């Protein structure tokens, strides 16, 4: 986030003279305490400054990177997830290609009759399957998909930072957001959302544009 000129001045004063009260900062800037209130609120909410009752404001010393990291950790999957697009495991490669185009997504989640997650299909999985001479309508997706338990998933309560790390480490574009359901002692996964690199980019832009007023 970008600080305005007055916020930069306040930051300098607190760095030099903190802990310092709001009243004293206002005096140094020849302004009233009330005028400074919104700027002080922004500086404390964004983590640059901290305040203790009867002591005053002090500089936290946190770098922009540390503050970004803290805010990214607080954002959760459920705030940014998109609607999932699923296909049944009995669908053909041809059907899956059509769905991918019609739904305008890069990753399809494959489910069984019970609507439990059984696999995942990416654009390249479908391209690879299309390179041979097979009839795409007769090739079932279940033989080309990446299947459970090898599918990396996430939960609505996971942090966006955690998910971003998974996407990078596994070199994948998206993850199904799942809820665990237990059937006769076996744990299955219901797909309730989709979290892709686009959602991570949106979270990044959200933090960058967030002026704390909202
Ligand atoms: P693309 O193949 O279009 O570059 P990805 O990088 O997402 O897209 O997929 C690469 C491979 O990883 C594919 O074979 C795909 O099936 C698999 N894959 C994609 N997402 C996941 C996931 N969440 N968990 C496990 N494997 C995945």
TrEMBL record:
Residues 80-138, 145-212 form the CBS domain. InterPro entries: CBS_dom, CBS_dom_sf, CBS_domain-containing, DeoR_HTH, HTH_11, UCP026546_HTH-CBS, WH-like_DNA-bd_sf, WH_DNA-bd_sf. This is CBS domain-containing protein. GO terms for molecular function: DNA-binding transcription factor activity. Residues 3-68 form the HTH deoR-type domain. It comes from Salipaludibacillus aurantiacus. Keywords: CBS domain, Repeat, Transcription, Transcription regulation. Signal peptide: none annotated. Coiled coil: none annotated. It comes from the Bacteria.
């Amino acid at each position: 986030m970008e600080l305005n000129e007055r916020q930069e001045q306040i930051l300098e004063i607190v760095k030099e003279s903190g802990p310092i009260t709001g009243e004293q900062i206002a005096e140094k800037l020849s302004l009233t305490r009330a005028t400074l209130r919104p700027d002080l609120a922004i500086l404390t909410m964004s983590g640059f400054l901290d305040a203790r009752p009867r002591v005053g404001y002090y500089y936290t010393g946190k770098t922009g990177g540390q503050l970004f990291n803290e805010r990214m950790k607080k954002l959760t999957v459920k705030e940014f997830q998109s609607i999932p697009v699923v296909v049944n495991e009995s669908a053909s490669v041809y059907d899956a290609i059509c769905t991918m185009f019609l739904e305008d997504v890069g990753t399809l989640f494959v489910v069984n009759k019970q609507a439990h997650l059984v696999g995942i299909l990416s654009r390249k999985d479908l391209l690879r399957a299309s390179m041979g001479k097979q009839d795409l309508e007769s090739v079932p997706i279940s033989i080309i998909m990446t299947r459970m338990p090898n599918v990396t998933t996430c939960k609505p309560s996971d942090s966006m930072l955690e998910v971003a790390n998974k996407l990078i480490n596994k070199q994948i574009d998206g993850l199904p957001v799942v809820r665990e359901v237990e059937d006769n002692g076996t744990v299955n996964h219901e797909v309730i959302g989709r979290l892709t690199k686009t959602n991570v980019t949106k979270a990044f832009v959200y933090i960058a544009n967030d002026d704390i007023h909202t």
